[in-house]
Amino acid sequence: MSKTIVIYKTKYGSTKTYAHWIAEELGCGAVNAKDIKIDDLSQYDTVIYGGGLYAEIINGVTLITKNMEKLSGKKIIIYTTGITPLDVRAYYDGEVLEKNFKNGVPENVKIFNFLGKMKMDELTLVHRAALKSLKKIMSAKENPSDMIKLLIELCDADGDFCDRTQIRELCEYAKS
Ligand SMILES: Cc1cc2nc3c(=O)[nH]c(=O)nc-3n(C[C@H](O)[C@H](O)[C@H](O)COP(=O)(O)O)c2cc1C
Questions:
Q1: What is the tens place of the pLDDT at every residue in 3-43?
Q2: Residue 6 Cα to ligand 1 middle (Å)
Q3: In Å, what is the CA distance from 99 to each residue of 35, 69, 76?
Q4: What mean pLDDT value characterizes the chain?
Q5: Which residues have any ligand 1 atom within 6 Å of their CB?
Q6: Which CATH architecture has domain 4-118+160-175?
Q7: Domain residue ranges of the chain, discontinuous segments joined by +
Q8: How far apart, in whole angstroms, are the C-alpha atoms of residue 22 and residue 38?
Q9: Which residue's alpha carbon is nearest to atom 1 within ligand 1?
């Protein structure tokens, strides 16, 4: 029988929430990335990795991208959680992929994107300050593109957009 594991790295819990939903749906385990080493993954056929987006970087994804040789032959699924609307495909298929997969997405890797949570009153002071300065930098741009305008707006996003129905396609692919 095919063996699957879900690994997540989280700061505020969204990615962990999805990891547990996916694990429940697939009947497999979900573990925090800090509790696993790459060699522990040799026993699995399908490895699902989740990380929140922080300035377009998928939190901790180098566990996967720096170890593609050790993961060859496995089905690798990566999911992101973030506050950018999912239909902004230029963002997910452009910026996010370019920043996280410098040599392109390997052929055994499939990526899914989910909406996460950003609650202003939960954020660390450092993160609040980072968002404030990002907003300031982007707002200073002359003739901002629609994407920049959207990113400026998203700096003030405040809510929990996690939704279990979003995992359906990922789970179908994992089982296929
Ligand atoms: C400093 C900071 C930077 C962020 N950058 C992005 C981003 O580039 N794109 C995005 O869609 N969401 C961004 N977010 C929102 C988080 O990705 C989102 O809240 C995510 O669900 C967090 O996952 P976690 O709680 O599992 O770490 C950012 C949030 C913070 C606090």
A1: 999 999 999 999 999 999 999 999 999 999 999 999 999 99
A2: 20
A3: 25, 20, 18
A4: 96
A5: 10-15, 52-56, 59, 81-84, 116-118, 123, 127, 130-131
A6: 3-Layer(aba) Sandwich (3.40)
A7: 4-118+160-175, 120-157
A8: 21
A9: 127
